[in-house]
Specification:
By secondary structure, the chain is α+β, with helices and mostly antiparallel strands. It contains 15 helices and 20 strands. Strands 3-2-1-4-6-5 form a 6-stranded mixed beta sheet, with helices on both faces. A hairpin with a 2-residue loop joins strand 17 and strand 18. Helix 4 crosses helix 5 and helix 9 packs across helix 11. The longest helix has 30 residues. The relative contact order is 0.08.
């Protein structure tokens, strides 16, 4: 057993001499086997070993029994032990997560608080096969079919090529005690259902299914690594100023394009899945946009694809509104100087004038265009970045929008040869809420 695990350790370069290794110790057969192996090579590799145990508060006395087993095991083997106790059921409910997902998150959060060079977890070949089946059922990507990698960041899995039957046989033959989790027999948890119902059926088709799964995930991982290296190179060529060049993206085969788009979302700390990637691909065909997550929207034009951050905050404006004679207005604006943020024919105003942000249904007739446009269509025509559209000052009277500061004036209130008085507006941002 030691030789088999050591081959895995050497094959994936999991352990270096002098490493400080934190063992994720549950007290079950797998984590005890992991501990036994690391103890057997401790002196040879000059390792410093510590362990961490999480008491989830799920199984009552049995859960406490497992914690006490770990305390005794670590005391016997001179391994410092760190313990975290939680109430996984109540805390998961409060967090809106399944008990499985919440418990996993808390475990790894806790592990990160403990100093070590490597975190050793006891995932084995059987776990790997179960994960593969689970991800196939969910329609996973090639990356998902890699299942449980032997190494990820500082997390190592020395048992990943040993199956659970081999582990239990070794421990029993050598008289090494371990804990049995009674919930393993329950099919209420997804993984237990796969373990007790699905995996045995696959082994009827192929008794060597677990080893076959390991071969498959190893081959898939090699292919995935190669494709990712190509995608990373293409990403660097396509991305500039956090925008992707559409002409470059259109030259890529679909397998690489999907990875480049996924990397783009990851680089922007945004979630991604099959459907989001599909929506991004559709933006390459014609200028459009779609909401990715909360305030973030993907936007394309004829040349680029980019991420725009939209704010739900409403900008409030303080406006200085004045009336000038047309002659005085011309004197102030002589030599082409821009003295006002907005101006129009005072005598054509209906009711009072306000300055605000755009509202649903806003429209106007741009001066000289002889047509009426919604602000949305007008902003699209003018290629106004969507992330600033909600903060552009809109000037309106009681009859509707009369102008968009910095862009256009409505035909109804434009300055002309008959203008006698001019309404002038200067605008300042008041606050954001």
């Amino acid at each position: 057993m030691k030789n088999k695990i050591s081959k895995t350790v050497d094959k994936y370069n999991l352990i270096s001499k002098g490493d400080k290794i934190l063992i994720a110790l549950s007290g079950g057969a797998d984590s005890v086997m992991l501990s036994e192996y690391l103890l057997s090579v401790k002196n040879e590799l000059d390792l410093t070993l510590e362990a961490a145990h999480i008491e989830h508060g799920i199984r009552g006395k049995e859960s406490v029994r497992d914690m006490n087993f770990c305390i005794d095991y670590c005391r016997k083997n001179n391994i410092p032990l760190h313990i975290l106790r939680i109430n996984a059921v109540d805390e998961a409910k409060a967090a809106g997560l399944s008990v499985e997902e919440y418990s996993r998150n808390r475990r790894y959060e806790y592990f990160k608080t403990l100093s070590c060079d490597k975190l050793a977890t006891a995932h084995n070949a059987t776990d790997n096969a179960e994960t593969l089946l689970f991800r196939i059922a969910r329609g996973s990507s090639l990356n998902g079919l890699c299942a449980i990698p032997p190494k990820r960041d500082n997390i190592i899995r020395p048992l990943i090529e040993v199956n659970s039957d081999e582990i239990r046989k070794y421990l029993e033959e050598n008289g090494i005690a371990y804990c049995i989790d009674s919930t393993n027999a329950s099919t209420d948890y997804t993984r237990n259902y796969i373990r007790s119902e699905i995996l045995p059926r696959m082994q009827k088709l192929n008794p060597d299914f677990i080893s076959a799964s390991s071969r498959l995930t190893e081959l898939v991982a090699a292919d995935e690594e190669y494709l990712e290296s190509i995608a990373s190179a293409e990403y660097e060529k396509a991305c500039s100023d956090n925008q992707l060049r559409i002409d470059r993206l259109k030259t890529l085969p679909d397998a690489i394009l999907g990875r480049v788009l996924a990397k783009y979302l990851k680089e922007n700390s945004l979630p991604y899945d099959y459907y989001k990637i599909g929506n991004l691909k559709s933006l390459l065909a014609a200028p459009s946009r779609f909401q990715i997550d909360n305030d973030f929207t993907a936007v394309s034009n004829k040349s680029t694809l980019r991420i725009a951050e939209l704010s739900n905050c409403k900008t409030h404006y303080a406006a200085e509104i004045s009336k000038l004679s047309f002659d005085d207005y011309l004197k102030i604006c002589k030599n082409g100087s821009k003295a006002f943020d907005f101006c129009c024919d005072y005598d054509k105003i209906i009711g009072s004038v306000t300055v605000r942000t755009r509202q649903e249904g806003d429209k106007l007739s741009p001066e000289g265009r002889h047509c009426t446009k919604t602000l949305k269509k007008l902003f699209n025509e003018l290629a106004v970045p969507i992330e600033i559209r909600n903060s552009i000052p809109v000037v309106a009277d009681d009859a509707g929008v009369i102008g968009i500061c910095g862009y256009c004036t409505d035909e109804r209130v434009k300055l002309g040869s008959e203008t006698k008085a001019v309404l002038t507006v200067n605008i300042h941002t008041e606050e954001k809420i």
